[in-house]
Amino acid sequence: MKNISTVLMVLLSLVAAHAFALDTSETAKIQYLIASVEALEGAKFIRNGSDYNAPAAADHLRLKLKAAGEKVKTAEDFIKYCASKSSITGKPYLMRFADGTTVKSEVYFRNKLKTFATDKP
Fold first, then answer.
1. Residue 113: left if φ>0, alpha if ψ -120 to 50, beta else—which one?
2. How far, in Å, are 32, 55, 109, 119 from residue 115 at the CA level?
3. Over the stretch 58-112, which tens digit does the pLDDT of each residue have?
4. pLDDT tens, 28-68?
5. Cβ contacts of 121 within 8 Å, gap of 6 or more
6. CA-based nearest residue to 112, from 36, 31, 49
7. Phi, psi at residue 46, to the nearest 5°?
8. Cα separation of 113 and 118, whole Å?
9. In this structure, is the dihedral angle defined by the CA atoms of residues 85, 90, 96 and 102, taken in order, positive or negative?
């Protein structure tokens, strides 16, 4: 019986460790996405018809992430609940780059998420 208890404790520890690692990985992805916006030179983040510079956009995304709390468990959740549209008006967020190209922020973030593994130092 003692051996079974020990095995169960080890298995539970491994499951908990795996869950923690997943959270850490997802947190890193979310921070990567926010940092990618913050670093955009000359870009504008368009929210409810108003333009915001890159640092203001990153601050807004951090605020929405904090407000979302437990609802956001993955980078995909972050994109869906925080980075795609206004929670007040439902209007999609847009990003206008320095070259004038405009895309929905959801498209930008999904494409950026695909590059996470290759952009890491």
1. alpha
2. 10, 21, 10, 6
3. 999 999 999 999 899 999 999 999 999 999 999 999 999 999 999 999 999 999 9
4. 999 999 999 999 999 999 999 999 999 999 999 999 999 99
5. none
6. 36
7. -105, 115
8. 10
9. positive
How is the chain split into domains, by residue range?
22-119
Q: What would the 3-class secondary structure string for the chain be?
A: CHHHHHHHHHHHHHHHHHHHHHHHHHHHHHHHHHHHHHCCCCCEEEECCEEECHHHHHHHHHHHHHHHHHHCCCHHHHHHHCCCECCCCCCECEEECCCCCEEEHHHHHHHHHHCHHHHCC
Which amino acid, one-letter code, is at 51? D
Residue type, 84: S
